[in-house]
Design goal:
By secondary structure, this protein is α+β, with helices and mostly antiparallel strands. The chain has 15 helices and nine strands.
Length: 420
């Protein structure tokens, strides 16, 4: 399932970082920092799929030289606590091709150039060999000054200001979401990403009357596994598949994430079945069928993937809500039907009687009644599991560049990876 991630960080001298080291590490190149007299050599770094630089049209020719670009960025700053570069970290959809991932990343870089007049250095990284193999991501390094024919000039204060910085970043988050969704649509994917917080998405769902979506969004953000736990969970999944058994998480964080994903999957399945029921009911009513016949047809359509009394009970609840809608809602499902209370009760009783008979016939035909857990049962099981309080571990400083060949050999990518 496509997921959204965009974060913005600063490369600042007060933290002991340099734009030259950041550029060399992310692109897997060798850059000599003229200001410090140090050489940053990451030519042995693996997992780098593509790198490119996007600069304003009137930028000097040296802007396409990565070493020259970031040495000039360092030289343009004179203060010891200067911010010399800014990094935009992007999660790329695994559902699209490498070419499409490159295209949307380039379009995002071009938008940064057009909007702020900065130089943009892009490095697209493959998933870490020990992590989630859907974790395609990009590191987009930008200058903090405008790049013009004479070189670096004014600071991009619109991104630095407390009043405007957050607004600008939120707008760029929306741009990145739109680029991904267009790419997903082009390849026929149904899933979409949303850059808004869960709270804002839930409020929007409530405003448009989508109660089920609001319920689905009433959850905490997914806990980040981290590379170590992710690797352990991947091995546990592979072992479970080889042994033909159900996967059971082996870490606390893995258990929380797995339960959350199960809950979301159950909600999605419930919503799909409800949509099928509503659509079928509307079609049958428009075709002239009575309320009971249309309800039975909706029930058959919604339960075609799962059988059992609990599944029928769950759909019956939804169908009862449909049959009790007011005149405005009935316009959506198809006009017609009786409006007085007594016929409504009669129709519901007849529907319940028909459902009970249908369940009895299925049990008689199938011999031993072997029920599958219903969606409601599976969802209750997930949501009612005891959830232990997890202390969020202090992660090591992931912003630090690796500067020795020994560390490069041990870790393919110091970036902790983006949650997918």
């Amino acid at each position: 399932m496509a997921s959204y991630h965009l974060s913005v960080k600063t490369i600042k001298r007060s933290a002991g970082r340099t734009a030259t080291a950041a550029g060399a590490y992310r692109a897997g190149e060798r850059i000599e920092c003229q200001r410090e007299g140090r050489v940053h050599d990451y030519t042995r770094k693996q997992g780098i799929e593509e790198t490119f630089i996007v600069a304003p049209e009137n930028a000097p020719a040296w802007a396409q030289d990565r070493s020259k670009l970031w040495n000039e960025a360092e030289a343009s700053e004179t203060r010891r606590n200067s911010v010399t570069a800014r990094e935009w970290e992007l999660a790329l959809p695994s559902e699209i091709s490498a070419e499409d991932r490159s295209q949307i990343t380039r379009e995002f870089a071009e938008e940064l150039v057009s909007r702020y007049g900065v130089a943009v250095d892009v490095a697209i990284h493959a998933p870490h060999r020990e992590g989630d193999q859907r974790n395609h991501h990009a590191h987009v390094l930008t200058s903090t000054r405008r790049l013009e024919p004479e070189g670096f000039t004014a600071k991009t204060r619109v991104l630095d200001s407390a009043k405007t910085g957050g607004v600008e970043i939120e707008q760029m988050r929306g741009v990145w979401a739109e680029l991904q969704n267009r790419a997903l649509e082009r390849v026929g994917e149904v899933e979409r990403v949303d850059h808004r917080s869960l709270e804002k998405q839930r409020e929007a769902a409530q405003e448009r009357g989508d109660t089920l979506s609001a319920e689905e969004l009433d959850r905490d953000p997914e806990l980040k596994l981290g590379p170590a736990a992710n690797s352990m969970e991947r091995r546990a999944k592979s072992m479970a598949e080889r042994e033909g058994r159900e996967y059971v998480p082996v870490t606390e964080r893995g258990a929380v994430v797995h339960a959350a994903r199960q809950a979301r999957a159950a909600f999605r399945e419930m919503r799909e079945r409800l949509d099928i029921a509503r659509e079928t009911y509307g079609i049958e009513r428009e075709a002239g069928e009575g309320r009971v016949s249309a309800g039975l047809a909706a029930l058959r359509a919604a339960t075609s993937k799962e059988r059992g009394p609990r599944a029928s009970d769950d759909i019956r609840e939804r169908l009862a809500q449909i049959t009790e809608r007011d005149g405005a809602d009935r316009d959506e499902l198809g006009r017609g039907g009786q409006s007085d209370e007594e016929p409504k009760r009669s129709a519901q009783e007849r529907l319940r009687e028909a459902l009970d008979k249908g369940q009895g016939a299925e049990r008689d035909a199938g011999g031993e009644d072997r029920e599958k857990p219903s969606i409601r049962e599976r969802l209750d099981d997930v949501l009612n599991k005891p959830r232990e309080r997890l202390e969020i571990e202090d992660e090591p400083n992931k912003d630090r560049e690796v500067e020795s060949e020994k560390e490069i050999d041990r870790e393919v990518d110091r970036d902790r990876g983006l949650s997918h």
